[in-house]
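Sequence, please.
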C-alpha cells in the first residue's frame, strides 16, 4: 500500500538537532521507539531538501501522494519538489535552507497510524509554521497529505471526471443527478479553456480527487487556510465545502493546460482567470460579471489600486475585487484571443519574490505591450468601452420580452419567451410582491437535498426536485440552480434602477433572464410551482 522503506545510509546532518527539539514534545500515546522513527523520517526528509536530493525526498512520501502529485503532468518552475510545493519548506527551499534544524514545536499522535508534526521556525523575523502529516507502514513512517488523514474513512463516489471523497454529513447532497451536472460543467469548462480531447480523456481515466468537506472550518483544518475551498497545488486535489466548486476547478484546469507554469501568478490575472471561467462564492460567471459593471462604474474598485500583489490583497475585499478582475480578464481574452492571453498569464507569473517586486508601472507596461495599445490610459478606455458594450449582454434585466402572449400562465405569474430571453411577470394581491417560482423538475431528484435550497428555505420544507427557481421581491430577482447550488443571474434594482421592473400601482414585477442559462427546457410542457410570500 505504501512505499518501501527508503534506502539506509541517508545522511543525517540535522537529524540529531531535529530529534533534540522533538523529544521534549513527544505525545505520551506514542511509544518512544515509534516516536524516534517519526523524528528520523522528518530529519532525513529535511536533509534531502537541504542537499537538493529531490528524487529521494519525494520517495519519502506515500505512493498515493507521489502518484497524485504527478497525475496530470503539471510541473511548477521554481518549485523543485511539487509534492511539497505548498509548504514553506517546499515552496521556497533556498530561503529555508538555514531554518531546517528547529523544525517542530508540537507533535500529535493521531488515529490509524497517522502522526502530525508542526514545523515552526523564525525566518527573517517572521514566524513560519506548517503541519506535516505522516502515516505508519510496517516499521516506517511516510509523509502524506492532510486530506488523506481526514478523509481516510469517507465514502468515495465516482463520476466520469471526479472521484469524490464525501464527508459523512455531505452524503445526502451527492447523488447521480448532481454528479452528472458536475461532469457537464466540467465539459463546458474544458471547452472554454480549450483543453484538448486527449487531455480530457486522460483526466477521465485518472479522475480529479475532490474532497467534499462539511464546512469552511473543516477546509481550514485540512489546508491551514480560511477559505471556502482550494485547488491544492501539491497534490492537484480539490478540497472544498462546495461541489463542484468551479472557481477552484478552473485553477486546476489552467495549470493542466499550461503544464509547466511558475508557482505564482499576479493575482489580478490568476484570480481574474478563475472568475472569468468559473465564477466564485456559488455565483456563476454571468452573475459576477454583471455585478462588476456596477462596481467599476461606481468606482468602488479601481484597476490601478489592485494591480500589484500587495494592492490586490490589501486595498479592497475579495467580494469587491474578484468580480472586477473577472471582467478585466474576460475583456483581455476577448481582445487578445485565448492563446495570446495565456502568454500574458505566463509573462506575469514567476517566483514569489518576482511577483512581489512587480510595481504598478511594470504591470501596466506588460498589459499595454500585449494589447498593442499606445499606453495604459488607452487600454483602460478600451476596457470602459467594452463594459458599456456588455450592458447589452447582461444575464438579467428588468422588463419582459416583446412576445405578445405568454407561453405559460398560472396563479400570480406568466412566462414569456423569445429566442434570447425568458420573461417572467409576477402579480401579487399584497404590497409585498415577493415569492419563488420553481420549475425544471428532473427525474432522480426526489428525496435528495440541496444546500442552497436549505439555506433559503430551511429543512422544514422538503426539496421537491425542481432544479431551478426564480426568487423575487421589489428590490431584486435571482435565478438559482439547486442541483449545483449556484446563483446563475441576478437583477438588483438599487444597482440598476428601472421603472420597467416594479409597478407599484399594478403590483406587478417583470424580469428577464437569458434563455441559455437553463438549457433546453420545453416550457409548454413544464410543471411550475409558485409560492408567493
Amino acid at each position: 500500500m505504501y512505499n518501501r522503506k527508503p534506502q539506509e545510509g541517508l545522511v543525517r546532518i540535522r537529524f540529531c538537532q531535529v530529534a533534540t527539539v522533538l523529544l521534549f514534545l513527544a505525545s505520551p500515546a506514542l511509544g518512544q521507539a515509534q516516536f524516534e522513527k517519526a523524528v528520523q523520517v522528518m530529519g532525513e526528509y529535511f536533509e534531502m531538501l537541504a542537499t537538493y536530493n529531490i528524487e529521494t525526498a519525494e520517495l519519502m512520501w506515500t505512493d498515493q501522494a507521489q502518484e497524485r502529485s504527478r497525475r496530470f503532468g503539471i510541473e511548477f518552475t521554481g518549485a523543485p519538489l511539487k509534492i511539497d510545493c505548498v509548504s514553506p519548506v517546499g515552496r521556497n527551499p533556498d530561503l529555508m535552507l538555514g531554518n531546517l534544524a528547529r523544525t517542530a514545536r508540537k507533535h500529535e499522535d493521531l488515529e490509524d497510524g497517522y502522526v502530525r508534526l508542526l514545523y515552526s521556525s523564525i525566518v527573517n523575523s517572521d514566524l513560519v509554521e506548517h503541519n506535516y502529516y505522516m502515516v505508519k507502514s510496517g516499521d516506517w513512517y511516510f509523509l502524506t497529505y492532510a486530506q488523506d488523514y481526514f478523509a481516510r474513512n469517507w465514502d468515495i463516489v465516482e463520476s466520469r471526471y471526479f472521484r469524490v471523497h464525501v464527508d459523512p454529513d455531505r452524503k445526502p447532497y451527492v447523488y447521480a443527478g448532481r454528479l452528472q451536472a458536475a461532469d457537464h460543467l466540467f465539459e463546458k469548462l474544458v471547452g472554454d479553456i480549450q483543453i484538448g480531447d486527449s487531455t480530457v480523456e486522460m483526466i477521465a481515466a485518472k479522475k480529479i480527487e475532490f474532497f467534499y468537506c462539511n464546512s469552511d472550518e473543516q477546509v481550514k483544518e485540512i489546508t491551514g487556510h480560511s477559505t471556502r475551498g482550494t485547488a491544492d497545488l501539491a497534490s492537484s486535489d480539490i478540497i472544498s465545502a462546495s461541489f463542484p466548486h468551479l472557481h477552484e476547478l478552473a485553477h486546476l484546469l489552467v495549470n493542466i493546460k499550461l503544464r509547466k507554469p511558475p508557482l505564482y501568478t499576479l493575482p489580478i490575472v490568476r484570480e481574474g482567470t478563475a472568475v472569468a471561467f468559473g465564477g466564485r462564492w456559488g455565483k456563476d460567471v454571468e452573475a459576477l460579471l454583471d455585478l462588476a459593471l456596477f462596481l467599476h462604474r461606481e468606482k468602488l474598485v479601481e484597476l490601478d489600486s489592485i494591480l500589484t500583489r500587495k494592492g490586490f490583497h490589501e486595498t479592497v475585499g475579495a467580494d469587491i475585487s474578484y468580480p472586477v478582475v473577472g471582467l478585466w480578464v474576460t475583456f483581455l481574452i476577448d481582445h487578445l484571443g485565448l492563446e495570446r492571453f495565456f502568454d500574458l498569464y505566463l509573462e506575469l507569473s514567476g517566483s514569489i519574490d518576482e511577483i512581489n517586486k512587480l510595481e504598478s508601472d511594470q504591470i501596466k507596461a506588460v498589459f499595454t505591450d500585449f494589447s498593442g495599445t499606445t499606453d495604459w490610459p488607452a487600454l483602460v478606455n478600451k476596457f470602459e468601452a467594452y463594459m458599456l458594450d456588455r450592458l447589452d449582454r447582461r444575464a438579467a434585466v428588468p422588463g419582459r420580452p416583446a412576445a405578445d402572449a405568454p407561453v405559460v400562465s398560472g396563479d400570480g405569474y406568466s412566462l414569456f419567451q423569445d429566442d434570447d430571453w425568458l420573461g417572467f411577470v409576477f402579480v401579487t394581491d399584497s404590497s409585498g410582491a415577493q415569492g419563488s417560482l420553481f420549475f425544471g423538475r428532473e427525474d432522480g431528484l426526489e428525496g435528495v437535498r440541496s444546500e442552497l435550497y436549505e439555506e433559503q428555505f430551511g429543512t422544514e420544507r422538503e426539496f421537491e426536485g425542481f432544479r431551478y427557481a426564480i426568487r423575487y421581491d421589489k428590490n431584486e430577482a435571482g435565478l438559482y440552480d439547486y442541483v449545483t447550488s449556484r446563483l446563475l443571474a441576478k437583477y438588483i434594482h438599487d444597482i440598476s434602477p428601472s421603472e420597467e421592473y416594479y409597478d407599484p400601482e399594478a403590483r406587478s414585477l417583470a424580469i428577464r433572464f437569458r434563455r441559455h442559462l437553463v438549457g433546453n427546457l420545453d416550457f409548454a410542457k413544464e410543471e411550475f410551482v409558485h409560492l408567493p410570500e
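Residues 32-50 form the longest helix (19 residues).
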